[in-house]
Amino acid sequence: MARKKVTLRYITNDTERKASFKKRKKGLFKKVSELSTLCGVDACAVVYSEYDSDPVVWPSRSVAQEVLSRFKALPEVDRNRKMVNQEGLTRQWIKKAENQLLLVQKENKWKELENFMFRCLAGTASMEEFDQRDAVEMDSVIENALKSVDSRMEELQRDHLE
Asked: Residue limits of the MADS-box domain (predicted)?
């Protein structure tokens, strides 16, 4: 049976929060262990909590110190190259969404112009409704429609000859 999606928000009940913390901490350490084993990389995890006075470290404090020392020994440019924080991740999502929006807007504009062209051909629209700023794009729409008609005619002629 599939589990329902958990809404990410602060757990107000102390005992539930502590139980969730313990389970998730164990799961986090398991994931880090799997990452290290499957990908052959050095990894560590350090978790500070209100429940323990000292941080909990995986796999051990000495290994974690070694991994962090090697990381800190890297030049700052190399350290920051692939590092992502919440702000950077959110910026990436926003940029991706903006790019998708631009693409959809462009597709919508193309379809509007194509629809207008067909309405003009059907006699249900006139060129007086046409915005001259769209002339270059309309030229592309018409060229595309003509290419489509030409290729369809060639296809029909080939089928007719066979």
From this structure: 1-50
